[in-house]
Write a structure and sequence with these properties.
The chain is built from four helices and no strands. The protein has one domain (about 15-90). With about 90 residues, the protein is an all-alpha fold.
Length: about 90
Amino acid sequence: MYPMDDPIIGQASLSILALSLAAIASSIRIFGDEQTEFKRESSTAISTGAYYLGKSISHLFIIVAAPAVFLFAFTSVAGKFQNQYRNQLT
């Protein structure tokens, strides 16, 4: 068996791409509606890093839970395929 024939690498790459796109969509949902508030607070010399950190901490459950649900579903399906793939090789 050659590494190029392994389908798990392709599935992992697509999963990472999907998670990255989901993270971008999540950050747009968190920060997209508050452009005016962000500009107002940054103009009053409030730290933009503290604003970002505060918003990220307040949405930490959603940021962690959404990929965890995806990861659980993916590993349960991928584990079944991996076992089937191993059985075919032997």
